[in-house]
Amino acid sequence: SQQGEEDPQALSIQEGENATMNCSYKTSINNLQWYRQNSGRGLVHLILIRSNEREKHSGRLRVTLDTSKKSSSLLITASRAADTASYFCAADQGGSEKLVFGKGTKLTVNP
Amino acid sequence: EPEVTQTPSHQVTQMGQEVILRCVPISNHLYFYWYRQILGQKVEFLVSFYNNEISEKSEIFDDQFSVERPDGSNFTLKIRSTKLEDSAMYFCASILSQETQYFGPGTRLLVL
Question: Which residue among B42, B93, B95 places its CB closest to the CB of A104?
């Protein structure tokens, strides 16, 4: 079974709208991290939420974590065309602290 | 702000050739990683490195792969005899401990 599965796989919205992406994971985690990747480029860290936290904010980003459901969501408010990218969640399972990534959500924000 | 750097940004090689991908992690970090991302697919863990030895490796990381931290700053990934299916973006990452994992910009490897 796969860790860090995001849905939807693709999301297309208009500028100014909110975008919500969800992530599910299978095993217990130390923390869950969200990353952004512009097409063919590197991974930019957005936010980290620890297993004992339920919600975290950073600018226009809001992340929630529900460890009972093994799920997390990333909300981008008042989206901009520049937010167009793929968004990945990555679960830190502890031990060597490797990250297990999901397949990502491809977000398109239309101007 | 400190960052992870990687060289080269792009590498084209012939099948069967050896390649070495280089990374300079953030200086006070303790854990180092290599991941890869085949085009259009998700990022996959290859190997983690701590205290000058491999702490965990995935099934992808077979005998053709090796890692080294030769001089206390560089962290390298060597592929001994490249295959077509090794074509991917390779990312290096580092962390201090149980914190944000910082990724480098990646090396795009193309095996012909």
Answer: B42
Query: Which is more confidently placed, A3 or A20?
Result: A20
Closest CA to B111 of B16, B21, B42: B16
Residue among A44, A96, A103 whose CB faces B42 most closely: A103
CB atoms within 10 A of CB A40: 10
Total number of domains constituting chain B: 1
CATH topology of domain A5-110: Immunoglobulin-like (2.60.40)
Largest CA distance in chain B: 39
Q: Is residue B103 part of a domain?
A: no
**Residues in chain B, how many?**
112
Q: Which residues of chain B have a CB within 8 Å of the CB of A90?
A: 43, 101
**What is the largest distance, in Å, between two alpha-carbon atoms of chain A?**
43
Write out the H or E segment, with its range, that includes residue A110: strand A105-110
- How big is chain A, counted in residues? 111
Nearest-CA distance from A19 to chain B in Å?
Answer: 21
Supply A1's token pair.
Answer: 């079974």
| Whole-number average pLDDT of chain B | 93
The residue assigned the tokens 């931290």 is B69
Question: CA A17, CA A79: separation in Å to the nearest integer?
Answer: 6
Contact A30 B91 (CB under 8 A): no
Mean pLDDT value of segment A37-62: 93
Determine, yes or no, domain membership for B107: no
